[in-house]
Amino acid sequence: MKMSSVPIIELDRYSYGIGDKLILSDVSLEVGEGEYLSIIGPNGAGKTTLLKCVDRIYRGGIGTIKLRGRPLESYSQRELARLISYVPQADERLFPFTAREFVLMGRYPHLSPFSSVKPDDILEVDRVMDLTRTREFAHRNIRTLSGGERQKVFIAAALAQGAKVLLLDEPTTFLDPGHEREVLRILARLNRDEGITIISVTHDINNAALSGSRVLALKEGAVLFSGSSSELMDNRVLNNIFGRDFLLAPHPETGQLVVMPEMTG
Q: Tell me, what's the pLDDT at 236?
């Protein structure tokens, strides 16, 4: 996909801390429109914090964050919601809404406080539920959905915002292999066919290598690696990130090196 000459997201020597604890340290990063960036790193590396700073859930910090060339702080909350949507890590929170009601709430950036839902809003909800294959359980209460079904509903609600960027924090955590594959395929299709920019935090090195067009690695809040999957899958690089070597072998379909499971005992 052709990238815009102006990055959709740009961080320049950005640092963020809470109290005396520095969580992000001098991070510089550019993300092109339509890119699929996977973020990896050890626990506590600052991955989730980075997403929350970009979406202004966490405010402040030193350095700059720009969206489409504009400082992040210059965006109104409504403008920001129409550009970026954050999908948090899956958890067991249960909501007293049907799947369709929850997705419809994603239209909030396009509604005034006293306006009613318009036909265009209904059409958009139908469209994103079709994209995420969630219409089949549109009228079911979220409480009754499986973890994978619920995660797809959260992605649909994010798309209903009209956002051009999806920030996803461990989108396949706790999912069984079937739902994990389906969620990853949905994200790939949104990126490829809809031009959605995706930034996805993952603990799974193979998902990062096989899903994204580029991988970023954080360690102790700093950028340790930014490059292609083939550049990542080198034990000199992986050892620098995770402090250990991995067993690597070619993927049987793509030939891309992937991390193999190791025998225990």
A: 95
Residues pairing with 239 in the sheet: none
Report residue 243 as tokens. Answer: 């402090």
Provide CB contacts within 8 A for 263, sequence distance 6+: none
Flag whether pLDDT at 115 surpasses 70.
no
At residue 16, φ and ψ (nearest 5 deg) are -145, 135
Residue 2 pLDDT: 45
208's CB contacts (< 8 A; 6+ apart) are 38, 39, 40, 202, 215, 229, 232
Per-position DSSP letters for 208-258, written without gaps between them: HHHH-SEEEEEETTEEEEEE-HHHHSSHHHHHHHHSS---EEE-TTT--EE
Least confident among 89-98, 144-153, 196-205, 226-235: 89-98
- DSSP secondary structure letter of residue 171: T
Domains, in order of start, for the chain: 9-259 (3.40.50.300)
C-alpha neighbours within 13 Å on the C-beta side of residue 119: 0
Residues in the chain: 265
Give the separation between CA 229 and CA 74, rounded to whole angstroms: 34
